[in-house]
Amino acid sequence: LLLGVLGAPALGDPGPLEDVVIDRYYIPKICLREAQMGDFIRYHYNGTFKDGKKFDSSYDRGATVAGVVGVGRLITGMDRGLQGMCVNERRHLIVPPHLGYGSIGVAGLIPPDATLYFDVVMLDIWNKNDKLQITTLSKPERCNRTVENSDFVRYHYNGTLLDGTPFDSSYSKGSTYDTYVGTGWLIKGMDQGLLGMCAGEKRSIIIPPFLAYGEKGYGTVIPPQASLVFSVLLVDFHNPKDGVFLEHLEVPESCKRRAVTGDFVRYHYNGTLMDGTLFDSSYSRNQTYNTYIGKGYIIPGMDQGLQGVCVGEHRRVVIPPHLAYGENGAGDKIPGSAVLIFDVHIIDFHNPADPVEIETVFRPEGCNVTTRHRDFVRYHYNCSLLDGTRLFSSHDYEKPQEVTLGANKVIEGLNSGLLDMCAGERRVLIVPPHLGHGESGARGVPGSAVLRFEVELISMEEGVPEGYLFIWHGDPPANLYEQMDLNKDGGIPAEEFSTFIKTQVAEGKGRLMPSSDPEKVIADMFRNQDRNQDGKITPDELKLKSDEDQEKIHEEL
């Protein structure tokens, strides 16, 4: 078509053109808008004569041409030829003399009655009545809050001119653009275009020049009167007045106690930025995070966010940067001014002043005899963490657990929980770590863990005072040695000693220290009395424990 138009005069001149000849030799697939009379446009062009000689070019000047189309500010032929163009459309225009510079021409540049040839590309179109054009490209399903004036936003963007020419990108800088909205720190169009966005939302924002950089443009990258196109991803936002936001994802039906300042809490967490980027997780370390709350050991937002939690609760804690890591961020994973989201699961908590918590599940009727210090008890138990994790159980073995209360053979909390029980009684014990396995824990027990015991007392035997293996129910015989020397040979071997002690127990005159192995207790007694270890006890060697204790007192005095 172009060749035909340009070649027509050579095929027998048909005469002067009556109107502009337009050749739309490139039309973009997408044309959102066509230039109309009164629109402001920006374009590049080359102007030549019929013989190809150039008389003018915006490219040579290094600047686009900007003006209003259809209102007589351009030569008539150009005014007509530019109307209806799309951004990025290219046209060849042939302008006859009477629609160009006529019989006068332009001195030294365009001769009289010259036909002009223009090669034009449209770069920008806008109108003073234009408004911001916002297109939502994607939006999260959950959006609890949107951007308002005075919020502080962090976003990524690609900035282009209307023809697609890029002029700036936050991605190329490797960091978000961070600023306040509605306070004049941004161009007006961006101030307006960010309002109502959700964290994670993507928008295309087309800003007309009078809401952008206007007649002056910006540096060498944004020409005067340029419309701007921003593709924006809102990473996060907050307001300086924000406090901690809590979302209770799952709260146990039974919550007898809630954490307060001074409590020691063990919890798991996933920490993410508002766009979902994971920056830390206790699960990845397979270890809970353990700390006191309300004492400044953790960031202020988490100190506040853990107040009032229940054991087993799942809670989301959203923390603004001024209650987290502020403008500086932390390391290479938490940017400056980042909002943090913690999804928390409370495993347990306690207070250093907590006693053992005892709940009686079943107590037999007629319970007159209860366990005391130094009693020997047999009991069954199940031990777990407060989140239900099973640790140990006596049911895994052939017989119940056996222990002398107060002999430091079990943790202090369990020992306390077994006191004042009746045979057949069942209890639930909650044992804080300072009465359990402490900060270090034990094999299979995490450090600082609160333990839950389900205990059932099977049987009990009255104990003896600490340090005693046998006690008399009354006064011992005055002639103890003679009675113990059954064959009257002046020496008491182990067999005679054992027979005598068993007889005293059988007749109710005394009792052994309770044990699952009475023979061993008697053997220990004999060994203590056989002071020279010659296999028999002599009159000089035999002494009552009470007499020995009295001798020690005199020695100290």
From TrEMBL:
Entry keyword Ligase: no
The UniProt record lists the EF-hand domain at: 479-507, 517-552
Molecular functions (GO terms): calcium ion binding; peptidyl-prolyl cis-trans isomerase activity
Q: What Gene3D superfamilies does the record point to?
A: 3.10.50.40, EF-hand (1.10.238.10)
What cellular-component terms does GO give this entry?
A: endoplasmic reticulum
For this protein, the record's Pfam families field holds: EF-hand_5, FKBP_C
Main location per UniProt? endoplasmic reticulum
Describe the reaction catalysed, as an equation: [protein]-peptidylproline (omega=180) = [protein]-peptidylproline (omega=0)
Q: Which residues lie within the region annotated Disordered?
A: 526-557
Keywords assigned: Calcium, Endoplasmic reticulum, Glycoprotein, Isomerase, Metal-binding, Repeat, Rotamase, Signal
EC numbers, comma separated: 5.2.1.8
Localization: Endoplasmic reticulum
Per UniProt, residues of the PPIase FKBP-type domain are 38-126, 150-238, 262-350, 374-461
Q: What general EC class does the enzyme of this chain belong to?
A: isomerase
Explain the purpose of this protein. PPIases accelerate the folding of proteins during protein synthesis.
What is the recorded name of this protein?
peptidylprolyl isomerase
Organism listed in the record: Peucedramus taeniatus
State which gene encodes it: Fkbp10
